[in-house]
Design a protein that fits this description.
Largest sheet: 5 strands, parallel
Shape: globular
CATH class of the largest domain: Mainly Alpha
CATH architecture of the largest domain: Orthogonal Bundle
Structural class: mainly alpha
Oligomer: single chain
Strand order of the largest sheet: 3-2-1-4-5
Number of helices: 21
């Protein structure tokens, strides 16, 4: 009997361990043909930004090496490419792990039906989420809108996440005779080499993902609950881009975190806190699935007539370049540009300044993060920006306006984070590192800083802009 052949359509699951689609094919005796399709046309406005494309190139290079250079690379509409590949290779089946972005859900549903109509076997699997969005509902059958009951009552009491699957012991590759194409054909690497600093900070790929997690477990897990808010410390895992591209699955992270915590007597508060952060990622995907409009529309309609700043361009550019004159904000924005990543506490601080102190629409922040973050994720990016703006589900109240000065003093008390990314302030004494505008002329001179020349004056008066934001918020009360 001739061995059946299956296309394994890789997407955001660029790994061999705990890959349900690959596991199903190899355990059921299929010869496999791995394929990656860059479908920018279907993605439309949500095609990947520059930082994500750089990461994807490195990750595809890594997984293709693990697949012994058998991956087929194509660019184009996925339905057309799959149809062509099935014809060229004679494949009997197509297997893939599910994605949850609205444009992918619709496209994949259509592709699945079309393949079945053509008598092609199709199987899809969950390789990206601990709990499927349609499995977790309130008692009345409606979706949750608040995180804590969703996670504590809905998820944790529903069922434990499944155990990770092993790497296939043996992969039989189909002898299909079709041109595999070249990774370079996808043209993922930007022509301007702004990403060179990122290359020194990250190791994309499955091995890099596990190494990153291991480093966190050894150096940053203990004390995570408190110190995860400190950008000057190493108590965060920085594993988000690896999870986004599927180089490591949330199931692997969940199991590893809990096992390591138990074996090494890590305080339960640290274990539970980290797992709840995985829960927040799940909640973002849950919201995206049940309320797909959150990518661009306010989750709370009362914000639709909010009086955003119409003259935003100059302030937006200063924010993007880390030239606001607010040290903790500038450190975060420069960290983003240099590394493609920003500490989560600082993300909240820079977001609050943009949408509240500057009254610039959260769309502008979402767009910038989408292009510059290596962990740019439609679900997390949309939900998080709406959380900061106060317009989302389970959002921070609009009147909760982060004061970047007090945030900096609390979470970067020695100013080490600011000194690293805003080197022009490296000689400022710590009592003024977060507020150089309050330092006297002599202190500024000794630190080698001339405000307005070496480092900008503050972009906005924090107290006055807070009052302006609260006044603007009054309009949403009238609309509700």
């Amino acid at each position: 009997m001739t061995q059946k052949t299956a296309l394994i359509w890789f997407r955001q699951d660029l790994r061999l361990k705990d890959n349900p689609a690959l596991h199903y094919a190899t355990t059921n005796g299929y010869a496999v043909i791995p394929v990656y399709i860059l479908d920018d046309e279907s993605a439309a406005q949500w095609k990947m930004g520059g930082a994500s494309r750089w990461w994807l190139h490195q990750s595809l290079q890594s997984v293709n090496s693990d697949l012994r250079e058998h991956m087929i690379f194509r660019a184009g509409k996925a339905d057309d490419v799959l149809t062509e590949l099935i014809k060229d290779t004679g494949a009997d089946a197509v297997f893939w792990n599910r994605c949850y972005e609205p444009w992918r859900v619709k496209r994949d549903k259509d592709i699945k039906q079309s393949l079945k109509d053509d008598s092609i076997e199709v199987e899809t699997f969950n390789g990206s989420l601990l709990w499927e969005p349609w499995e977790i509902l309130k008692d009345d059958g409606t979706p949750y809108r608040v995180f804590t009951p969703y996670y504590r009552k809905g998820c944790l009491k529903k069922k434990e996440p499944r155990n990770p699957m092993p790497r296939p012991e043996r992969i039989t590759y189909a002898d299909h005779g079709t041109d595999t194409g070249q990774l370079g054909d996808l043209e993922l690497i930007p022509s301007i080499k702004w990403y060179e600093q990122m290359e020194t900070f990250w190791t994309p790929g499955e091995n890099g993902a596990h190494a990153r997690l291991e480093t966190f477990l050894e150096d940053g897990f203990k004390g995570y609950k408190e110190d995860r808010n400190r950008p000057d410390r190493e108590n965060v895992s920085r594993i988000s881009p690896h999870i986004h591209f599927g180089e490591i699955s949330p199931h692997q992270v969940w199991e590893t975190i809990r096992a390591y915590g138990e074996i090494n007597s890590i305080p339960e508060k640290d274990v539970d806190c980290y797992c709840s952060e995985l829960g927040w990622r799940e909640f973002s995907y849950y919201l995206l699935y049940h309320f797909p409009h959150i990518t661009w529309e306010n989750f709370q309609p009362k914000f639709n007539d909010f009086p955003w700043n119409a003259q935003e361009s100059q302030d937006l550019e200063r924010w993007q370049k880390g030239q606001t004159g607010i040290p903790i904000v500038d450190a975060g924005m420069r960290q983003l540009w240099q590394t493609g990543w920003m500490h989560n506490r600082v993300r909240m601080i820079v977001g609050s300044l943009l949408v509240k102190n500057l009254l610039i629409h959260w769309h502008r922040g979402e767009e910038w993060f989408w292009d510059t973050l290596v962990d740019a994720d439609l679900a997390s990016n949309s939900a998080s920006w709406q959380w900061v703006a106060g317009s989302g589900a389970d959002a921070a109240p609009y009147f909760r306006i982060f004061n970047p000065l007090t945030q900096g003093e609390k979470f970067d008390p020695e100013g080490e984070y600011v000194r690293e990314f805003v080197p022009e302030l490296k000689n400022m004494p710590k009592q003024y590192i977060h507020k150089p505008w309050e330092a006297g002329p002599l202190i500024l001179k000794e630190a080698g800083v001339e405000l307005g020349k070496d480092y900008p004056e503050p972009i906005v008066d924090l107290k006055a802009s807070r009052e302006r934001a609260l006044k603007a918020f009054e309009t949403t009360k009238k609309a509700s």
